């Protein structure tokens, strides 16, 4: 059994370098307007080139996140981006749109293609579909446990990737199956690199306003309204790692391109230690319990801060243009 | 000339409804297998249903569950197996794994890719076409221009929703069940038979919730643009009616049947004010134009 890879976020060039320094095997970075994140968590092409160079100098890899659902009018630009990053040494791509997966496979036959969480996979046959159209690795849904992983391993020969957080089994958890944000708020953007986008985060227009994580009133005909959020916070995951590795999970992914660099630094350091420990025969994860509790608390605090920022933008987005993009 | 379709979840709705304005019916409630007597989960209802729809002179498409987990796949497979032996005019699929399953089961019926199939590009339309898809429902976020581009450049038939609430979210768990004290695995009490709304007072936002699906608060309404749709040679139109009353389905269908009949006969649309007022009267949270004209889904643009 080969050691699984640790994927870490590179929301900025600084974060990408820190992730490499702390032991990430692969860093993922997103170009402006193509990776479903706000402008401050995506990179210019110049920074992506520098991140790839830094990773390669240190024997690591970079995957480029091109996981928007592009407009049909954007496919030529999409193809140019793929060829550019592959020529700079990116070892693979993280993609959502099935047509884009097939396009990349045709353009760069030997690259590695990860299916993004936005593909909305719900069962093992989905995995087989993506393998058949040319993907190499699929990120598994947040809710999945050992049974689903084992079944997917049986049904499909595709590589398996798991997020290093777990989520409670309630609420609206529907990556790739949600367009609430753009129904409620819409914005047009022109990035400093010239990409014009209108619409939702799914399509590259920067912000999903995380409307599922703010307070709503829920009412029916008969009952009094109740105040609630549409989903609950996820939390960092650890205990499952030895079993998941045993089942053949090849990649573990830390999410958080929007988190502060020190948070990512500490997460990469922590999970590097945990994965190395498992590789050396450590199976009792309780030795990390205190460290994990502290990180979970920080993770939750930072996530809530981020939601507040995004909801504030949703309310006031016309007030000021951000530094890296121009609101139309 | 054109096809106007809507959806029917169960045998009871099929019996009670007036579908005279429609050319085709999508049978099944794709967001929830527990929905009472859902065609998506009850193969025993399919033979009678397809016969009944055909007797009405309409096409019958069978919807498959949109978010099947591994646990649900035997149920879905059983429904497909039954339907393959019946004269359905096609399947509607939202889950790409089910495309794979239909291929493996030797399906030769036409397949329509549903709203949660996430069709954004002609590149993807070409991929699913290889799996037998003949019609796609572009993701609601696409503009009309993008939908037409996909039709022409794939090429493939596109379904254009013209009225009703826009499906925005589908989840694998039921929000109504969870928030009415229901426990995971506990029997459903079908509280979705009442209307549920999500509102956010500070932002003037409203959404309709049906448990596993969240819909737009406002009703998509394209009545003022029927001429434009016909001129673009679009010819498959859809009224989204999940959770609506029989009166809603019949009234909306009649209004659009008349409008499209005139448009395809080359008769100018004229003043649709009275019909628009009637449609607005059926919409609790107002009307919208969705994303068709490059704006947030909840905005109503009108002819201007």
TrEMBL record, chain A:
Record InterPro entries: Peptidase_U32, RibuloseP-bd_barrel, RNA/ubiquinone_mod_enzymes
UniProt superkingdom: Bacteria
SUPFAM superfamilies named in the record: Ribulose-phoshate binding barrel
Classification via PANTHER family: PEPTIDASE U32 FAMILY, UBIQUINONE BIOSYNTHESIS PROTEIN UBIU
Protein name: U32 family peptidase
Species: Rhodoblastus acidophilus (Rhodopseudomonas acidophila)
From TrEMBL, chain B:
UniProt source species: Rhodoblastus acidophilus
PANTHER family: PEPTIDASE U32 FAMILY (PTHR30217), TRNA HYDROXYLATION PROTEIN P (PTHR30217:SF6)
Keyword Transmembrane: no
Protein name, entry field: U32 family peptidase
Organism taxonomic ancestry: Bacteria, Pseudomonadati, Pseudomonadota, Alphaproteobacteria, Hyphomicrobiales
Cited Pfam families: Peptidase_U32
A single GO BP: proteolysis
Alphabetized UniProt keyword annotations: Hydrolase, Protease
Stored InterPro entries: Peptidase_U32, RNA/ubiquinone_mod_enzymes
MF terms (GO), sorted A to Z: peptidase activity
Record-stated family: Belongs to the peptidase U32 family.
């Amino acid at each position: 059994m080969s050691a699984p890879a640790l994927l870490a976020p590179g929301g900025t060039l600084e974060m990408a370098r820190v992730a490499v320094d702390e032991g990430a095997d692969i860093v993922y970075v997103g170009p402006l307007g193509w990776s479903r994140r706000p402008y401050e968590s995506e990179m210019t092409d110049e920074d992506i080139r520098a991140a790839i160079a830094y990773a390669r100098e240190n024997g690591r890899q970079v995957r480029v996140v091109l996981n928007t659902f592009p407009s049909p009018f954007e496919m030529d630009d999409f193809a140019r981006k793929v060829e550019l990053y592959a020529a700079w040494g990116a070892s693979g791509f993280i993609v959502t749109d099935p047509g884009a997966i097939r396009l990349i496979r045709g353009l760069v036959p030997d690259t590695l293609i990860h299916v993004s969480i936005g593909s909305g996979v719900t069962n093992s046959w989905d995995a087989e579909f993506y393998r058949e159209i040319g993907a190499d690795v699929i990120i598994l849904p947040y809710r999945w446990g050992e049974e689903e992983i084992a079944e997917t391993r049986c049904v499909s020969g595709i590589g398996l990737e798991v997020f290093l957080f777990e989520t409670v089994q309630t609420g609206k958890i529907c990556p790739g199956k949600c367009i609430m944000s753009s129904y409620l708020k819409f914005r047009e953007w022109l990035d400093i690199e010239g990409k014009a986008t209108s619409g939702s985060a799914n399509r590259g227009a920067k912000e999903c306003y995380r409307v599922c994580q703010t307070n709503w009133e829920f009412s029916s005909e008969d009952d009094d309204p109740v105040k609630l959020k549409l989903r609950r916070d996820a939390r960092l995951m650890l205990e499952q790692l030895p079993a998941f590795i045993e089942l053949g999970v090849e990649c573990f992914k830390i999410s958080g391109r929007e988190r502060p660099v020190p948070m990512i630094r500490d997460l990469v350091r922590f999970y590097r230690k945990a994965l190395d420990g498992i590789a050396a025969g450590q199976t009792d994860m309780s030795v990390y319990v205190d460290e994990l509790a502290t990180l979970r608390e920080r993770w939750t605090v930072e996530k809530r801060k981020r939601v507040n920022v995004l909801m504030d933008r949703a309310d006031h987005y016309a007030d000021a243009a951000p530094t890296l993009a121009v609101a139309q | 000339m054109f096809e106007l379709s809507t959806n029917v979840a169960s045998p009871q709705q099929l019996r009670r409804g007036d579908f005279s304005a429609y050319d085709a019916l999508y049978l099944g409630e794709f967001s929830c297998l527990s929905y009472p007597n859902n065609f998506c989960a009850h193969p025993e209802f399919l033979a009678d249903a397809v016969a009944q729809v055909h007797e009405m002179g309409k096409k019958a498409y069978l919807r498959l569950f949109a978010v099947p987990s591994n646990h649900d796949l035997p149920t879905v497979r059983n429904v497909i197996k039954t339907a393959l032996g019946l004269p359905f005019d096609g399947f509607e699929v939202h889950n790409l794994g089910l495309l794979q399953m239909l291929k493996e089961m030797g399906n030769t019926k036409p397949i329509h890719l549903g709203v949660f199939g996430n069709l954004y590009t002609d590149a993807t339309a070409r991929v699913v076409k290889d799996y037998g898809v003949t019609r796609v429902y572009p993701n609601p976020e696409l503009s009309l221009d993008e939908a037409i581009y996909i039709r022409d450049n794939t090429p493939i038939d596109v379904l254009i929703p013209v009225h009703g609430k826009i499906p925005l979210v589908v989840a694998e768990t039921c929000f109504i069940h969870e928030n009415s004290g229901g426990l995971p695995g506990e029997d459903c009490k079908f509280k979705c038979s009442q209307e549920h709304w999500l509102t956010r007072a500070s932002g003037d936002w409203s959404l309709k919730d049906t448990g596993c699906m969240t819909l737009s608060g406002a009703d998509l309404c394209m009545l003022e643009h029927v001429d434009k749709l016909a001129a673009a040679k679009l010819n498959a139109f859809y009224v989204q009616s999940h959770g609506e009353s029989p009166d809603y389905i019949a009234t909306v269908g009649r209004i659009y049947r008349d409008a499209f009949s005139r448009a395809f006969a080359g008769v100018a649309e004229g003043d649709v004010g009275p019909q628009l007022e009637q449609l607005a009267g059926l919409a609790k949270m107002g009307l919208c134009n969705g994303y068709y004209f490059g704006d947030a889904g909840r905005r109503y643009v009108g002819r201007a």
